[in-house]
Amino acid sequence: MVRRTAPLGLRTRLIAAFLLVAAICAGTTAALTYQKARTAILTQTQDTAVSTLRDQVEQQQLELPVDQQQLQLSVGDIAKRGKPHPWTIFGEYGTLRASSNGTPATSGAVTEALRRRVTANPHGAFQRVEDRSGNPYLVVGMPAVFNQGGVRQATGIVYFATMPLDAEEATVKAMVDAAQQGAVPGLAIALIPALLAARSVLRPVRDMRRAAQRLGRGRLDTRIEVRGADELAGLARTFNETARALEQSVAELQEAEARARRFAADVSHELRTPLAGMLAVTEVLDEDAEHLDPDTAKALRLVSAETGKLAVLVEDLMEISRFDARAAELNLDDVDLAEAIGKTLERRHWDDGRVVIVTDLPPEVRARLDPRRFDVVLANLVGNALRHGGAPVRVTVGTGPGPDGEGDRLLIEVADSGPGIAPEVLPHIFDRFFKADAARTRSAGSGLGLAITQENVRLHGGTLRAGNGPANGAVFTLDMPLEARA
Fold first, then answer.
1. What's the structural domain count of the chain?
2. Where would I find the HAMP domain in this sequence (predicted)?
3. Which of 85, 162, 216, 390 could make a disulfide contact with 418, Cβ separation 3.0–4.6 Å?
4. Residue 484 CB partners (closer than 8 Å, separation 6+)
C-alpha cells in the first residue's frame, strides 16, 4: 500500500522557496568569488615567479659552451633569489643536468609538454601540476638567450623553477571555509525576512479563507480589510465587491420570496371564507342532483368536485405558509402506532376491501408524536402510493437505533406495486408543485402533498427518503425519533 505524503503548507513552501533562493544566491556568489580570488592569487604568484626567474636568468654571465661546474654555480645562484616563495632550480644543457637541491636528475614535475613550450618560446612558459601526494606546484621554464642584432637567440641552456603553492592553496581553502561557515548564519538570518514575507502573504490569504467560511455560513455582510495596492489587495477588493453583490442579490431574492409567501398566505386566507360557503352550497345541490336533468346534474357534480379540489389546495397553501412562517407547532401525545395507522386507513375508507393495503404493524409500538400531523403524513404517503403506484400498498412499522447508535427510532416504510420513480424525478420528488411524471398516471392533487409531508416529518425531528424497491415500485421511508420534542 502506497502511503501518500501530506502536502506541505503554503507557509512552509514560501519559507523553503525563500531559503532556497538565498542559498542559491549565496552559493553562486561564493563560487564566483572563489573562482575570481583563486585566479587572482595564482596569477599574481605565477607572474611574480616568471618575472623573477627571467630577471635572474638574464643576469647570469655564462661562457658558451658551459661545463658542469658553471651550470651548477648558475643554478645555485638563481635558487637563492626565489620569489615570491623559495624555489628549487633545475638546469639543463645538452646532456648536462644540475639542481639546487643536489639531485643529479631534473624534477618529475617538469613535463615534456612544458619542455616543448619552453623550446618554442624564448620568453619562457609555466604550468601548474600536482605531485603524487596531490600537492600543487608551479613549474616555470625559462631559456637562457642572448641578443644578436636585436634578435633573441637561444643558448641551449634552460632553467626550470619548481615552487610549491601550499600557501596559495591554504589561502584559497581558508576563503572556502569562511564561505561555508558563513553560509549557515546567513541562511539563519535569511529565515527572518522569509518569515516576514510569508506572513505578509499568508495573512491576507488567511483573512480571505475566514471570510469565505463566514460567507458560506450565511454571513453575507462579511468584508475583508484591504491593505496596500498589490495583487492580494486587488483580490480582497474583488472579494468584497462579490460579497456585496451577493448580499444584495440574496436580499432581493429573500424579499421577493417573502412577498410571494405573504401573497400565498393572504390569498389562501381570503379564499377560505368564500370557499366554505361554496362547499356548503355544492353539498346541498349534490343532494338534489338526482332530481335535475342529466346535463345539469353532470355540470353540478363537476362544479362540486372542482370546488373540493380548490378547497384542498387552499388548505395545503395555508399549511405550507405556516411552515414557511415557522408558525407550525407540535401537539405531542403518546400514540399507539397500530391504532393510529388503522384510524388513518379507516377515515379514508381504505380498509373497506376496495383497495389492497397490506400492513405489518407490530403490537405495543408506541411513540410520542403529534397525532394530527402523523395522520396527514401517513395519509399523504398511502394516498400517493395508491394514485401513482398501485395496489397492493405495503405499510411496515418497525423500530431501530439512530444513526449515532443511541436512542430508538421509529421506522415506517410505505411501498407500492407500481413502476417506480424515474431517476430524473427522484431529486425533485419533494419539491413544491412538482408533478412531472411520465411513467405514472397524471396526478390530480395540488403538488404540495409530499412537500407538506416532508415538513411534518422534519417538525418531528425525522427524515423522509424516497426511492425504488428491488422489485420496482416506489418506497418511502420515514425515520423519526420515538420521543419527538416540541
1. 3
2. 199-251
3. 390
4. 330, 332, 367, 368, 369, 370, 460, 461, 462
Same domain flag for 388 and 425: yes
Axis-axis angle for helices 231-287, 166-216 (nearest 10): 20
Each residue of 176-228: pLDDT tens digit? 777 766 666 766 676 677 667 666 666 777 777 888 888 888 888 888 888 77
Query: Is 4 a domain residue?
Result: no
- Which residue ranges of the chain lie beneath pLDDT 70? 1-11, 13-15, 18, 104-106, 147-152, 180-184, 186-188, 190-191, 194-195, 197-202, 260-261, 263-265, 267-269, 272, 402-407, 435-446, 486
**Residue 97 contacts residue 90 (beta carbons within 8 Å):** yes
Domain termination residue (choose one: 172, 193, 211): 172
Cell numbers 393510529: residue? 340
| One-letter amino acid for residue 283 of the chain | E
What's phi and psi for 324, nearest 5 deg? -65, -35
Q: Do 185 and 23 form a contact (C-beta atoms < 8 A)?
A: no
pTM: 0.50
| Beta-sheet strands, E only, within 118-208 | 125-130, 136-148, 151-164
Burial 289-324 (b: 16+ CB within 10 A, else e): beeeeeeebeebeeebeebeeebebbbbbbbbbebb
Residues 23 and 118 in one domain: yes
The grid coordinates of residue 329 equal: 407547532
Cell of 143: 631559456
Q: Which residues of 6-15 are buried (b: 16+ CB within 10 A; e: fewer)?
A: eeeeebeebb
183, part of any domain: no
Q: Does a structural domain hold residue 213? A: no
Residues 115 and 137 in one domain: yes
Cβ atoms < 10 Å from Cβ of 473: 20
Which helix (H) or strand (E) segment is 346 a member of?
helix 337-347
Based on the domain organization, do 118 and 145 belong to the same domain? yes
Residue 216 lies in a domain: no
Closest to 30 measured CA to CA, from 171, 168, 167, 183 = 183
Q: Which amino acid is at 51?
A: S
- How far, in Å, CA of 107 to CA of 97, rounded? 11
Cα of first residue to Cα of last residue in the chain, in angstroms, is 51
Cβ neighbours of residue 180 closer than 8 Å, sequence gap 6 or more: none
- CATH number for position 319: 1.10.287.130
Residue 314 sits in which domain range?
Answer: 232-324
